[in-house]
Write a structure and sequence with these properties.
single chain, 128 residues, alpha/beta, Rossmann fold, 5-stranded parallel sheet, 5 helices, 46% helix
Length: 128
């Protein structure tokens, strides 16, 4: 495995998924994508990631359920998860933090904000 930080981006909208992957790859991160919570859990079972950007509104298994399953898996307990959603109400952000997310990015996102928040997650993990 290379020294690049590995990020899994999970979103059911292909345009958001592609944009986030392009931006993060361009910043030097190794990026994988999944278009569903089930797909994300499958990838997480097969590969190691340093961060998950997780959409909330997805069919079949939403981001909340996906986050709960990630937190329930002992091997992924410390994996940083950032919620990534069009839902921008304060209650949504608070709910994300209560469920174990480290941060919450509202879509549509600004490229600089996305990169800064991802960088801050990694800086915080190095301090721990």
């Amino acid at each position: 495995m290379s020294g690049k930080r590995r990020i899994l981006v999970v979103d059911d909208h292909r345009d958001i998924l592609d944009l986030a992957a392009t931006v993060l790859s361009g910043a030097g991160y190794a990026v994988s994508t999944a278009s569903s919570g089930v797909g994300a859990l499958d990838l997480l079972a097969e590969e190691e990631f340093d961060l998950v950007l997780l959409d909330i509104n997805m069919p079949h298994m939403d981001g909340w359920e996906t986050l709960r399953l990630i937190r329930a898996e002992r091997s992924m307990d410390g994996l940083p998860v950032v919620m990534f959603s069009i839902k921008g109400e304060v209650r949504d952000k608070v709910h994300g933090m209560q469920e174990g997310a480290l941060d919450y990015i509202t879509k549509p996102f600004e490229i600089d904000e996305l990169l800064q928040r991802v960088s801050r997650v990694f800086e915080a993990s190095e301090v721990r």
